Amino acid sequence: MVALDLCREERTRGTYAERGVRLGMSASEVHAAVGRLKEARLLDPETGEVLRKPLIDFLEHGVPYAFAERPGEVTRGIPTAWAAPVMADKMMQNSGLPPVWPDPEGKTQGVSIRPLYRSVPKASQRDSRLYDLLALVDALRIGRARDRNIAKELLEEKLLNYAAA
């Protein structure tokens, strides 16, 4: 979640505390996440810039294993993966229930998907562009091959365009 936020052009500056407030994390959690990104060689230690191509590779190939998830119980929540607005118009209608991040204020009934971090639903409600990125990552985590291919293309487009902006 921190890596995706760091990719955003207007979000590259600011304190750990400011980023933590936006993401629903403590400053120490953000600081630790930045340290892990540096250790994983996904963040340039000199410039603090996210290395976008390696991040995209990790999102595509690592996240489905490191953050494996299977749809759970039926609940109310916020649509994610192919049910999120960022992907919904690119997908054929599925007869099953959509994947959702559980949220008592959610308006969609679907099968629960545990978010990457507990504050994802609230952070997504505050920031639609972050919501798009997190939903695409979920499509990589739980989607079928076609879903993953579409999500990867959209993630590349968004993350590489953020870099150019």
Briefly say what this structure is.
The protein has 165 residues and is mostly helical.
Q: What report would you give on this structure?
A:
This protein is 52% helix and 9% strand. By secondary structure, the protein is mainly alpha-helical. The chain has two domains: 2-66; 74-164, no CATH class. Strands 1, 2 and 3 form a three-stranded mixed β-sheet that branches. Helix 8 (128-142) runs antiparallel to helix 9.
Helix vs. strand class:
mainly alpha
Q: How far is the N terminus from the C terminus?
A: 20 Å
* Helical run tally: 9
> Average pLDDT across residues?
91
Query: Could you name the ranges where pLDDT drops below 50 across 5 or more consecutive residues?
Result: none
Strand % is 5-15%
How much helical structure, as a percent, in the residues?
A: 40-55%
Strand/helix succession: HHHHHEHEEHHH
Radius of gyration: 15 Å
